[in-house]
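Technical annex B. To support the medicinal chemistry partners, we prepared a structural model of the target in complex with adenosine-5'-diphosphate, based solely on the information shown next.
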Amino acid sequence: YRNNIIRKKSNLLLKEKNNELIKAKEKAEKASNARADFLSTVSHELRTPLNAINGITHLLLEEKPKKSQLHYLNSLQYSGNYLTAFINDILEINKIDSNKIELERINFDLKQLLEDIKNSLIEVATKNKNAFVLDIDPKIPNHLIGDPIKLSQIFMNLINNALKFTKNGKVSIVAKLQDLQEQKAIIQFKIIDTGIGIPPEKLDSVFDSFSQGSIEINRKYGGTGLGLTIVKKLLNLLGSDIHLESHLGEGSCFSFELALTVNNNFATTEPKKEI
Ligand code: ADP
């Protein structure tokens, strides 16, 4: 009889503990949702007037301003662009963190995607006098299924950084087929630069939000300190992770592997279609 009472009591205690845990989890979820909603509202509210500021600055710059005004307008344009990039990055991180991102499954051509990205960044490469090389394994199937917009975001961030932190050097984008099964292509990507490199003590923290090399680096190269956070989060969403090897003064190599579905049914006459 006593044992029965003890068992009942401990069951009751367990139930209470369980309920407490569930309540604490619900409370944390509510707080996290409220934070995400707040961030999203504030960011959207900031974006509207900022678009006006950017638009008017652009118009004024087109009106052939005097030399003295040009300096202020350029500075206004830089700050406007920075704030826009910052707000967009915050919105993106918020969306990923609150599980509001859905992955697309669309037919795409990886080679074309990388060539388009390269073409869109050629100006940055030329400005910094960098050789800019695409090295794509010809064995990679032409038609893959995945989320090309998320992939572009990942590549744009990494390649833009590589070009930004390298002067008179070389930036290579390497895509290598690791394994090809009937439905799946395992591809390894490397973004290699011969730029300023990252000190060993910073190798882990560069992926944290707002982490930047140093105040001097931030002042010299600009940026929001959120790009690599987004890259890591997007890759995690795609079931992968990012690896970094870097030597100060010599350069960096960011690499990751992706398992992409091979589109065996692709009819060449059909336009890109949702699967
Ligand atoms: P940012 O917008 O400041 O570039 P990121 O999150 O993209 O933010 O990068 C964080 C920091 O990591 C950068 O400020 C820089 O110090 C360092 N970093 C990133 N990519 C490179 C690279 N290719 N070479 C050297 N340093 C880099």
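Notes passed to the chemistry partners:
Helices lie at 2-62, 67-97, 110-127, 148-164, 215-221, 227-237.
The pocket of adenosine-5'-diphosphate is lined by residues 157, 161-162, 165, 193, 195-198, 206, 211-213, 217, 223-229, 252 (CB under 6 Å).
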